[in-house]
Amino acid sequence: AAQEGFEAEEVEGVLGAAGHGPLPVLAVVGRPNVGKSTLVNRIIGRREAVVEDRPGVTRDRVTYEAEWAGRRFKVVDTGGWEQDVLGIDASVAAQAEFAIEAADAVVLVVDATVGATDTDEAVVKLLRRTGKPVVLCANKVDGPSGEADSAMLWSLGLGEPHPVSALHGRGTGDLLDEVLKALPEAPPQTFGGTVGGPRRVALIGRPNVGKSSLLNKIAGEERVVVDALAGTTRDPVDELVELGGKTWKFVDTAGIRRRVHLAEGADYYASLRTAAALEKAEVAVVLIDVSEPISVQDTRIITMAVDAGRALVIAYNKWDTMDEERRYYLEREIETDLVQVQWAPRVNVSARTGRHMEKLVPAIETALAGWETRVPTGRLNAFLGELVAAHPHPIRGGKQPRILFGTQAGTRPPRFVLFASGFLEAGYRRFIERRLREEFGFEGTPIHLSVRVRE
Ligand code: GDP
Ligand code: GDP
Fold first, then answer.
1. Where, by residue number, does GTP 1 bind (predicted)?
2. Diameter over CA atoms, the chain
3. Cys bridge to 133: 32, 144, 182, 241, which one at CB 3.0-4.6 A?
């Protein structure tokens, strides 16, 4: 019962497309029977389309690849979602929510022969909130006489309605031209730089923790400067480093080599550098100097990495200075100051002696794997179902909020969306995150959990 109203594989397909694929994603939304599926079939050029004359028909796939004017993108057909179970408004709202999560642009299909209904208005409101570009399709304009119906849809406030006959193909070319304008040119770039190529590592930490020593130790002379941003005083450079049989890109390493003397404002610039490196990186290796107590500056840098949504490894450097007493205090400091990032792989290293250098790459790889983990929707919901049955949300004001359904909306880092019948308390959300980690790993990665309340 927890999954009513959704087809797990469909949702998986939708979000999988946005989470992984390099192609931009277009979502086609609208009320039942306005012609969404007909339009999708038109866009993907599949004439022998399976379109049934009955609302609520569940199709087995919803994501397709399409091409127009030499540009490829993915199309998500939300037409098959089961409005029978949710009710029409809820079903349309769910489409919009998925569009928010998964799409780069949205086509809203309205039946021009019917005109704008309350449901259409409601979905417009939802779409507005997303800030995603919306192209308005006035469908079922089969001939010139329908153009007037189309013009009526200016009232929706979405700009020009594009008259289309999805059935006969009339106007679909113009519509697709608009769609291409709305879609991002290149794949959405959440990490800066291009996707693919060597994995990008930010080696960060407060001044003097040993960043440049570590880089020299692991890479020695095999560093290759690949990129310098000329004209800036700090000249950030990316360097390619051979490690564990692979090539890694250490980003913004000039900031590492240039020793920051504690001039005024040095902290500020150090933190700007850290932010810039994180922006370009996929994984952060945060160095901590174990010869000194863990400081606010250390925890601030870790927080920056987590907030940037990067995979995280914590390297405790200068381990050669370790003695029993310091060890005792360090473990306590970790327990109190770094409890939030218990999930980060830990390596105890010494840039001076080379201790445990070989453990760095496996730790980075573990963190990246966690960062890219995708839980199939079916498995996630089986897990959520059991969890909710065994540990229901506490009753509040006579009501008990229930998780109806969940899905992983993306990776790098993993993002989850839970649909619930009421507000979920922070404590309960933390509990869910903890259990998700126990169940699925997610070592070395932050997790985002968002909850959508459905009345
Ligand atoms: P969905 O529920 O929004 O996916 O709508 P469908 O694509 O299943 O279409 C619903 C009905 O409208 C079907 O009977 C289609 O043949 C019909 N239809 C779709 N597009 C057009 C169109 O451009 N003109 C006309 N006259 N009928 C259409
Ligand atoms: P950065 O500012 O983070 O790049 O730090 P550096 O690499 O310049 O190192 C700062 C100081 O710590 C230097 O004097 C290093 O020799 C020293 N250092 C770096 N790594 C280690 C280590 O593993 N053990 C010890 N004992 N000293 C280290």
1. 30-37, 77-81, 139-142
2. 87
3. 182
Q: Nearest residue CA, atom 19 of ligand 1?
A: 35
Q: Which two tokens stand for residue 281?
A: 């990186």
Q: Can you tell me the ipTM of this complex?
A: 0.55
pLDDT tens readout for residues 348-377: 999 999 999 999 999 999 999 999 999 988
Quickly tell me which residue has 């840098």 as its tokens. 301
Report CA(454)–ligand 1 centroid distance (Å).
Answer: 28
d(CA 21, CA 367) in angstroms, rounded, equals: 21
In whole angstroms, give the CA distance from residue 277 to residue 284.
9
Q: Is 382 annotated as a binding residue?
A: no
CB-count exposure of residue 167 (10 Å: 0-12, 13-18, 19+) = middle
77 is in an annotated binding site: yes
Q: Which range is least confidently modeled, 240-244, 273-277, 304-308, 363-367?
A: 273-277
Distance between CA atoms of 183 and 81, rounded to whole angstroms?
24
State the distance from the centre of ligand 1 to the C-alpha of 67, rounded, in angstroms.
Answer: 22
Read off the pTM: 0.59
Ligand 2 centre distance from Cα of residue 210 (Å): 4
Q: Is the pLDDT of residue 407 over 60?
A: yes
Tell the residue nearest (CA) to atom 11 of ligand 2: 208
**Radius of gyration for the alpha carbons in the chain, expressed in angstroms and rounded:** 26
Q: Is residue 399 a known part of a binding site?
A: no
The closest residue, in CA terms, to atom 14 on ligand 2 is 208
* C-alpha distances in Å from residue 188, one per residue of 103, 184, 350: 10, 7, 38
Please state, in angstroms and rounded to a whole number, the distance separating the CA atoms of residues 414 and 409: 8
Ligand 1 binding pocket (C-beta < 6 A) is 30, 32-38, 51, 53, 55, 79, 139-140, 142, 165-167
DSSP 3-state assignment of 277? helix
Smallest-distance ligand from the CA of 207: 2
Q: How far apart are CA 39 and CA 55, in angstroms?
A: 15
* Adjacent-strand bridge partners of 415: 410, 448
Nearest to 156, CA basis, from 108, 99, 106: 108
Q: Encoding tokens for residue 402?
A: 């229930």
Angle at Cα 314 formed by Cα 370 and Cα 345, nearest 5°? 40
Binding site membership of 206 for ligand 2 (Cβ less than 6 Å): no
Q: How far is the CA of 208 from the centre of ligand 2 (A)?
A: 6
The rounded mean pLDDT for the chain is: 81
> Two tokens at 45?
């050029």
Angle at 158 between CA 157 and CA 161, to 5 degrees: 110
Distance 152 CA to ligand 2 centre (A): 70
Residue 144: φ, ψ to 5°: -55, -30
SS3 311: strand
